[in-house]
Design a protein that fits this description.
Layout: H1 2-15, H2 17-31, H3 44-51, H4 56-73, H5 81-84, H6 87-90, H7 96-112, E1 122-130, E2 138-147, E3 156-168, E4 171-175
Antiparallel strand pairs: 1-2, 2-3, 3-4
Length: 179
């Protein structure tokens, strides 16, 4: 008999606490930062200004296409042959030589920035600007973020770089800088 009373008493004391714990966990889950959409932090007026003079199709497809490209290279290990030979990344470059130049420059830059395993976990679009001429293309200023590879550094390492995109033959291409 005493066991039943003790069980009922403990159930009554803790029974009111459980809904509050569940509500707290749900609220904490809602408050965690979700991934922001690609280009959310970029000033729309500057993007529109950079896209002036381009065909409407080019203006409409730059941000979605660049978002796809940088999503594909996020969380990929860049000092790996599997990543280098991935056709889903290569398709954004006009030639294999252009892809090789871009890849080599990015691997070197990630290594110098001490991004662990040359694997960025996040790429943020910081700015879109026009080149000196419309034919020169657009410049996307980016921040690559990943775990720090230096000992006793628990904070993230980051790399800011500018990629150039050109509209040619009815589509966007990534144009690498020379190594």
């Amino acid at each position: 008999m005493r066991r039943k009373e003790a069980f009922r008493a403990s159930r009554g004391r803790n029974g009111g606490l459980v809904p509050f714990l569940v509500a707290g966990l749900l609220l904490a889950g809602c408050l965690t930062p979700a991934g922001r959409p690609w280009g959310a932090g970029v000033d729309e007026a500057s993007v529109r200004a950079a896209l002036t003079g381009l065909p409407p199709e080019a203006a409409e497809t730059l941000l979605p296409l660049s978002g796809i490209f940088y999503e594909r290279i996020t969380s990929r290990r860049f000092n790996s042959r599997a990543t280098f030979e991935d056709p889903s990344v290569r398709q954004f470059f006009p030639t294999v030589a252009a892809y090789s130049d871009y890849y080599a420059a990015l691997v070197d830059a990630l290594d110098e920035a001490h991004v662990r395993y040359n694997r960025p976990t996040r790429v943020e679009l910081l700015e879109v600007s026009a080149g000196p001429a419309v034919e020169a293309g657009l410049r996307l200023r980016l921040r690559f973020v990943g775990p720090n590879d230096l000992p006793l550094r628990w904070w993230s390492a980051s790399l800011e770089r500018t990629d150039e995109w050109q509209w040619r033959d009815g589509r966007w291409w990534v144009v690498p800088g020379k190594v």
